[in-house]
Amino acid sequence: MIAIGEYTCSEGSSPGEAVLVCVEPGCGAYALRCCRKACSCKNAHLGHQLMDFDILLKDVDRPLTLPAPQALLEKRIEDTIEGLIRDLEVLRAKHREHVKEHLQRVYGGSTLRRQLAERRPLERETSTGNNFSSLLK
Ligand SMILES: [Zn+2]
Ligand SMILES: [Zn+2]
Asked: Which terminus of the chain has fewer Cβ atoms in its 10 Å neighbourhood, N or C?
């Protein structure tokens, strides 16, 4: 990125800092002009419409915005995408909960396994060698 002061006019051997810009419709010459009275860069733009180069640059730097109808459409699309993202987050949470419940129901094992996993006291009826044996399968 070059600094504003580094833009120069079209003078060949010692170009001056660009201060003005030609905005004449139909002008085919290099548009940037310095402010030196004797500089040759002004010759191609005699009688042409000129403006301050820094003002033109400020205009270029303004953020681009959509016309109102397109801005409204763009907002609707943003809102739709936002809604879909929220719906998908809810779906993911439900899916994870479902998988967790499925794991517990199908692979969670016996009462004995849950009692041990939660470090709860064991019951005599369910704490048999056979059930401990089943734990290891
Ligand atoms: Zn010049
Ligand atoms: Zn011109």
From this structure: N
